[in-house]
TrEMBL record:
Alphabetically ordered keywords of this record: Oxidoreductase
All residue ranges annotated as the Luciferase-like domain in the record: 1-319
Alphabetical list of Pfam families matching this protein: Bac_luciferase
Protein name: LLM class flavin-dependent oxidoreductase
Coiled-coil spans in chain: none
Origin species: Streptomyces johnsoniae
Amino acid sequence: MKFGIDLAPVISPDEKSAVDYYEEALRLAVLAEELGYGHVRTVEHYFTYYGGYSPDPVAFLSAVAARTERIKLVTGAVLPVFSHPVQLAGKLAMLDNISKGRLAVGFGRAFLPSEFEAFNVPIDESHERFREGIEACRRLWAEEDVVWNGTFHSFGPVTLLPRPYQQPHPPVLVATARTPESCVAAGEAGFGLMMVPGINSAEQTQHMLSLYRQAWADAGHEPGGENVHMSYNVYIDEDGEEAYRRGRHYDPRIGAKLAHAVADWKTTRSSAYRGYEQLTQAPEGGDPFDEHIRDNKVLVGTPEHIRGQLAAVRDLYGDDLTISFLVSSGDMPVEDSMRAMRLLAEQVVPHLS
């Protein structure tokens, strides 16, 4: 297993100003390199408290690149459905050069109806726009004099500048939330996969991973070359009760912001997003926070307990995992995030790497 940090901002201006958030997030990114983490990752979202402080992950990761030397930079993810491919490929190639080849590009399809409405992009077109955007970027990176006549964009001949630092292009990952077809397409193309296991059952996640790995093998890609990223909220303390108290305070606040962001799925239906209305349904049965701990969807407890949770995750999903720890969210003091990173780096990661 490999490990890094996820700096997706789940936060409102009432909790923390943008200036303060960026300053603290950059401190965490620098600390991540000092502690030996493998990557820093952030997301692209708009308008809502669920990620809205990160409309341009390339801008943030460029600031990280300027302050670090070794740690990898991961877009988790950029959204080609809302960008022209020449513009998107160009600024990603620029970041690849600024960082001297430390970039891995995660592409996402987007899933918030309010974002599609704001960009005046029909949500039913998301699959086609997503696939076209990735392939256009890939060709712009890898080829010269590119002529593109797609469904949504036409251009060329174009030779992109700057050329990517990594040849033929940076590693590509594809984000999927609930769509098995995305896993198959990623495996066939030889791309990595980005998953959020907290929103699916273990059985669903295992099924999606099996589709990805089988598609990878059937396409003839190098055995063992699969690249699977997963992101987990983590609350850690040497005092297990304090870790639980902190998680009990912050995790529902994250859930509330997500619930508000996905509320439009109560009235939105799209053949491109089958089952997404389930994101708006309140969980049945017991306490969702305790159930998430039990099912290893959120990491909570002492370093020893979290080592056990991650070992269970590895047993469920395999050794080829890259784990992103979400250590900063809501109005959590940056000192608590830094302490969590140190505990993870010193008492958890060495036992599982």
